[in-house]
């Protein structure tokens, strides 16, 4: 999921991604379900989400912007549709979740609501969050510092 690009230093890669994220104007895409650091990573990779359709059914999907996707789906699924859980991931992680819970599939991306699905989403979030926390974060002394970024503010906010 998170791979190094050999021709670009970790500092430069981080700062480019942070600048794109900050300038996007969409820093929170999960209605504050995830930490700022996870939101930052999701801006670059996307999110695997779990939405509650009703008491007996959920939807597992992938989106770069889960809250926008929720708004797009509400006309089809109804006003009770809610974003329950999500984690940073790519489309392959969504497909893995679909395979894992194939025995609960109702149709397409709809599944029977089961505690195991929520437990899986929580454990995946923790696993991915640990990997994200291990990523390189520039220091304010970085010789490659992008002048457009206030890294002191960004580091404090992302550490929450």
> What is the global morphology?
globular
Q: Looking across the biggest beta sheet, what order are the strands in?
A: 3-1-2-5-4
> Structural class per helix/strand content?
alpha+beta
Question: In sequence order, what are the helices and strands, one letter per element?
Answer: HHEEHEHEEHH
Major sheet characteristics: 5 strands, antiparallel
N/C terminus separation: 23 Å
Strand content: 15-25%
Note poorly predicted spans: 144-148
Helix content: 40-55%
Give the overall pLDDT as a whole number: 81
Helix run count: 6
Can you count the beta strands?
5
Radius of gyration: 17 Å
What does this structure look like?
It is built from six helices and five strands. By secondary structure, it is an alpha+beta fold. It has a domain at 26-134. It has a five-stranded antiparallel beta sheet with strand order 3-1-2-5-4, sandwiched between helices. The chain is globular. Residues 144-148 have low confidence and may be disordered.
